[in-house]
Design brief:
The chain has 139 residues and is an all-alpha fold. The chain contains eight helices and no strands.
Amino acid sequence: MKKKMSYWRSLKKIDADVQIPQPLRAKFFCLKGRCYNINPLYDARAMQCLSRAVKLNPSMVDSWNELGECYWKNMNVKEARASFEGALKQERNRLSLRCLSIILRQESGARRGKEATAVIQKSVELAKEAVSQDTKDGV
């Protein structure tokens, strides 16, 4: 445990703008944000790191997905949805598809009639696509 805390303290002391080469900064902030986001509770530091990672490299799908989960923890479903959609613009991947499917199902409760049905159908389509990419995901 002491060794892990030592690594964490070292990570916090790194000045990315000075010590991390430009091509690696987005990955650094993604990993640092992921470390903060491990906690089941929302952590604003995770949001800061992940937002910066996405700005530095908008094509990094892992950053978009982690940012979406961070927004979701903070109950900001609108931004979580936008983050997962941002990831899907870069690459169709099972994590973004699965999470976006869940968000759409949650949002369908606030809608009525044909609109709710359309949202649920879209959710099912996304879930099917996610499962088709990896049938063992979630098992």
